[in-house]
Amino acid sequence: MQDAWLGRLFVRFRDRRDGRALAAVFDATARALLTVAAHLVPTLDLAEDAVQTTFQRAIEHAARFDEARSLKGWLYGILWREAKKLARSELRVPDARAL
């Protein structure tokens, strides 16, 4: 039930550019997304970055959201891809203390 409500809010944002609807989606999902992100990347800062990037990508690609599907599932998919990118890029940065 909640996912259907969140999906309708996201569609309202997508179709009407209703910022309050997007804020409600963020408020309802950000904590759970952050919890998952914390398991995918090495630091809390990167987890927070992954959640922010997830919403940035969701806003940029709102037209791709299929309202017949789960909004949370779509957001988790974006989060997983973005967290993996951040984790890979973190591995490429040399530790300054080790240098």
Q: Mind sketching the topology for me?
A:
Blueprint: H1 2-16, H2 19-40, H3 44-60, H4 71-92
Characterise this structure:
The chain is mainly α. It is built from four helices and no strands. It is elongated and about 50 Å long.
Identify the notable features of this structure and list them briefly:
99 residues, mainly alpha, elongated
| Mean pLDDT metric | 93
SSE ordering: HHHH
Number of strands: 0
Distance between the termini: 52 Å
Helix/sheet category:
mainly alpha
Low-confidence segments, given as residue ranges, are none
- Overall shape: elongated
Strand count, sense and barrel status of the largest sheet are: none
Total number of helices:
4
In oligomeric terms, what are we looking at? Answer: single chain
Q: Specify Rg, calculated over alpha carbons.
A: 15 Å
Residue share in helix: over 70%
- SS strand fraction: under 5%
